[in-house]
Amino acid sequence: MADLFLRRFNRLSPQTKGLWLGLIAMMMFGLTLPVTRLTMGTGTTTQLSPWFVTFGRAVVAAFLSIGFLWWKRAPWPKRPHWRMLVFAALGNVLGYPLLLAFALRTVTASHAAVITALLPLVTAVCAVWMLRQRASNSFWACAAAGTALVVVYSLLRSYQAGQAFHLERADLVLVIAVLAASIGYVHGALVTPELGAVQVICWINIISLPLTLPGSIMSWPQTAVSAVTWIGFAYLGLFSMWLSLVIWYRALAIGGTVRTSQVQLLQPFFAMLFSIPLLSEQLDTLTVGFGAAVVVTVYLGKRLGASSR
User: Fold this and answer.
1) Quick check: is 38 in a domain?
2) In what helix (H) or strand (E) does residue 50 lie, and over which residues does it extend?
3) Whether pTM exceeds 0.85
4) Which domain holds residue 136?
5) Domain count across the chain
6) Residue 258: pLDDT band by 50, 70, 90 thresholds?
């Protein structure tokens, strides 16, 4: 059965392969938001700190990476690769996970999913800029519309909470997290054709160890943590921090960064869907409506403005 699946998969075009791999990665990423919030505790129950969630899961992924590279006897990256790997590590290993964890202390996973729905559009913008691709005025108009929707959503949320109209600090943190992740994705995708997706993920986790290992030791939980929390933490280390990124970088390299990033449109809906059983969150019309509206602007931006890599 597995051989038959692989033969059929290998017959697909590179663009189709990239889209299917991207879909698998998005399902894994969709679990990241609710699982991250679950590992830190919900309501008045505190479990792991954002620092430990970020550093600890990166350490898990780093040791997996060391074992894999040793088993494969992989060569060291060449000098031109290191700069790309460092930027990918800063964005995907440290920046996005840490900022996301802090934001999820004060907002629900469904709320965060609306803001992070901008990720594919920001990834495309970064790709257009860094890869020196052209984008039409329609593309930039959609980017502005998507940003405006996120701002309006944040303002309405603050009003519903009985506060004056203002941007939530957590939303600003999430926007910075999205930017960090996008820059990391593009840098990782740039070296994936030469190193391979697995090696890129391995190296960005390994070169982060001088920060993540001491950080995880210093932020080790001082109180008892539930078994469910540790299971969630294991998921973040194995899947969110390693396997999903391997699949996603491979998808970007095969299908093209700008084209394949469109699959990220599904991530916020996976996150909302998984939040219902995991966190008992109730989806409201405002969240689903704005999430769908942001996704539409991202889709139109891809269709109207960005060319394939």
Assistant:
1) yes
2) helix 50-72
3) no
4) 19-305
5) 1
6) low
At 81, the amino acid letter reads H
Residue 97 · residue 245 · CB < 8 Å: no
The gap from C-alpha 87 to its chain's centroid, in whole angstroms, comes to: 15
The token pair that represents 1 in the structure block = 């059965």
Q: Token pair of 79, please? A: 């000098």
Asked if the structure places residue 279 within a domain, the reply is yes
Task: Measure the CA–CA gap between 21 and 96, rounded to whole angstroms.
Answer: 21
181 falls within a domain: yes
Helix, strand and coil content of the chain, in percent to the nearest 5, comes to 80, 0, 20
Give a yes or no: residue 1 inside a domain.
no
Q: Which residues pair with 306 in a beta bridge?
A: 135
Query: What is the number of alpha carbons within 13 Å of residue 200 lying toward its C-beta?
Result: 31
pLDDT digits (tens, 9 = 90+) for 82-120: 999 999 999 999 999 999 999 988 888 888 888 887 787
Rounded Cα gap, residues 144 and 172, in angstroms? 16
